[in-house]
Each structure stands twice: as structure tokens, then as C-alpha cells.
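Minutes, structural biology subgroup

Action item carried over from last meeting: produce the C-alpha cell record for ABC transporter substrate-binding protein (Pseudomonas fragi). EB confirmed the sequence was re-checked against the source entry. Recorded below for completeness.
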Amino acid sequence: MVALLAWQWPAAPGDMPRGPLLQAAEQRQVLRVGVRSYPRPSLGQEALVAEPDELDSQLAEALGAYLGLKVQLQALPQDGQWHDDRVDLVIAGSLKLPVAADRVASLRDLPVQYREGALIGLRNAPVRPVREQSVCVAVGSPWAQTLQQQGAELRTYVSSIRAAVAFMAGECNLLAEERHSLQALAQPPDWRFYALLPQTLKASSDLRVYLPVVDKQSRALINAALRDWQARGGQTRAWELRSNALLVDSLKIGDGLVCH
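Output recorded by EB:
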């Protein structure tokens, strides 16, 4: 006689038990998330208003939806560090902070169509390894860790568009960015003196979510939510928004707006 085992589907992320961190958020009825924030290109006389990063904010809103909570986004310092208890979670792209592994939830892989990082430099310049070359990158770039391992001299900027503008101003030898985004950036006439390099950069990881305390149950729920968000296409949509925003910002720069 064959014994039949009943298959149980894994619990949906929102149905999983909350640890103390997320229980406290439920009591407040709001999930406080620190995210990268920065001004967008604007007219020189306009007041600077920091806006949340597309990737970080999309994931934060998704986590709030899994938990059934409103989300309050708070701007992180430019180095991604947080120093108080005003946030429940921190999302800063792929930024690797000096935090123990049991306080981190993350997605390993980027969406397939956004997985390749690339470099752009002066057209007709001799191709050579990135070791000891200066490279402009944005805070939280998925390719920063790979570049560091290759010996590059990283110069980090608050946003991708700010890194691109710094590169155009001659502050770095190279600019590192997602390949399709670089191909789009390089289309306008202002970029005719630059060309993509042949090498491909491997991403260290995609988005990381940092917890301020060790909380196994809350971390397990967030990891499950990340996997579900990825499977449902949320990660890909967030990257599409991010790529489109970078292109729009670059067009604004071309129209004479100022990148602060």
C-alpha cells in the first residue's frame, strides 16, 4: 500500500509570522523605509527636492503591500548609512554595508535583460584593464564590488545621472552602468567622443534590504517577499522604471537643465 503525502504550498509572504521588528511596524500601521534619494535635473533657480530612487521605492512599496501597511519613505544619507531607530528597513540598491549577514535579505540576480554591466570611455582610447583607472559609479551600483575586485579606483556619486555627468566632465576615466542604459545614453551627439568597452561586468547582487536588528522571522518574511516579487515580475518592472528615469534625466541635461 502506497502512502499518499499531502502537498502543502508554502505560505504566502504576507501570511508568514512577523518577528518583533515587523510587529512593531504593524502596531504603528506604517512601515518606515530608508531609501536613496536625490534631486533630479532642474532649472538652476529651482529649489532642490530630493526624490526617492525608483528601484528602492518600488521594492519598499511592494514590501508594504505584502504586509498590508502604508509605507513612509525616508531619505538616507548619501553613504547609505543610518544612525538611529527612525527606520524599520534600509534599501540602498546593491550597496554593501558593514552589517552581519543575519540582518540582510537580498536578491542575488538582476533581471536577465538588465544583468550585464558595461563601461564607457573615450572613443579610440587604448583598451586596457580597469585596474587603477578611475570609474564613476552611483551609490548602490550592482557592479561596484566587481570593479573594486578588479582594482578600479571608484568615484561614487549620489545617482546614476550624477555619475554620468561627472564622467562627461572628465572626473573619471570610465563610467560603469547597465549595458542597455549606456547604449541609450551614448546616442545623443554630446556622446560621440565616447564608446562602450568590450568587457562585461558581473553584478554582485541585486537589491539588499537591511534590518536594524537580528530578527529571524522578519528576515524570513522579507526574503520570501523578495522572491515572490521577483517571480511576479516586480523586480523587472522596477528596473524598467529605473532605466527609463535615467534616460529621461539625461534628456533633461541635454535640454539645459542642471544636475545638482
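Discussion: Confidence is low (pLDDT under 50) at residues 1-9.
Next step: EB to file the record with the rest of the batch.
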